[in-house]
Amino acid sequence: MPVTTYVFDAYGTLFDVAAAAREAAAEPGHDALAASWPALAQHWRLKQLQYTWLRAITDSHCDFWQVTQDGLDWALEATGLDGDPALRQRLLDLYWELSCYPEVPAMLRALKDAGMATAILSNGSPAMLAGAVQSAGIGDLLDDVLSVESVGIFKPDARVYDLVQGRFGGTRQDVLFVSSNGWDAAGAAGYGFRTAWVNRAAEPIDRLPWQPDTVLADLTPIPELAQA
């Protein structure tokens, strides 16, 4: 059965989550950040994800913007940069304008030219996702942008993956779900989607009951999967 719908995680998959820290570090007046931005970006992302998992299992949902701020506050303190409110605000502002990875526009265009449906399925709030899509200029290459806010719980809860069939119909095997998060690709595989893990950092596969069907270094080969 051929795949007809290509669904992408947003943060870390289409959009570079390290871009906010990297770009702020290059701006004048941010010398302290320039020396530690990779550590801050790593802490920020890890805490952001950890807080989504903890809120999901404790039934204490909030939107992704709140966990993004909470994760940043932890990261700023961990790197000794929590005494600069202006830096905090600048980092948050930049998060609404994250750069997409360079291969993303051409990859999505190739899928659309091949007649495929394309969408985002993300923990992000609708407003955050709209900002990122607009900033990246890829809105015309997506059929929909689906947010967990529709169901009030973060991935990898099955109710989130249900949103795809609710929007596009078909079967779970009609979908290729693509994520840079190993746990997300595993969760989607367990749900029944075909999956591709974009393993940009060349990390080991997570020790979970499910594994992705395909492991890629970036998104460039996705249209070849569509042709296959």
Number of strands: 6
The CATH class of the largest domain turns out to be Alpha Beta
CATH superfamily of the largest domain: HAD superfamily/HAD-like
Termini separation: 11 Å
In round numbers, the mean pLDDT is 97
Parts with pLDDT < 50 across at least 5 consecutive residues: none
Keywords:
alpha/beta, single chain, 228 residues, Rossmann fold, globular, DNA polymerase, domain 1, 2 domains, six-stranded parallel β-sheet
Structure description:
- The radius of gyration is 17 Å and the shape is globular.
- The model has no long low-confidence stretch (mean pLDDT 97).
- The termini are close together.
- The chain folds into two domains: 140 residues, HAD superfamily/HAD-like (Rossmann fold), CATH 3.40.50; 77 residues, DNA polymerase, domain 1 (Orthogonal Bundle).
- Helix content is 46%, strand content 12%.
- Helix 1 packs antiparallel against helix 3 and helix 1 crosses helix 5.
- It has a six-stranded parallel sheet with strand order 3-2-1-4-5-6, sandwiched between helices.
- The protein is built from ten helices and six strands.
- The chain has 228 residues and is α/β, with parallel strands linked by helices.
Write the topology of this structure.
Blueprint: E1 5-8, H1 19-25, H2 31-34, H3 37-57, H4 64-78, H5 85-95, H6 104-113, E2 117-122, H7 126-136, E3 144-147, H8 158-168, E4 175-179, H9 182-191, E5 194-198, E6 214-216, H10 222-227
Parallel strand pairs: 1-2, 1-4, 2-3, 4-5, 5-6
Helix pairs in contact: 1-3, 1-5, 3-4
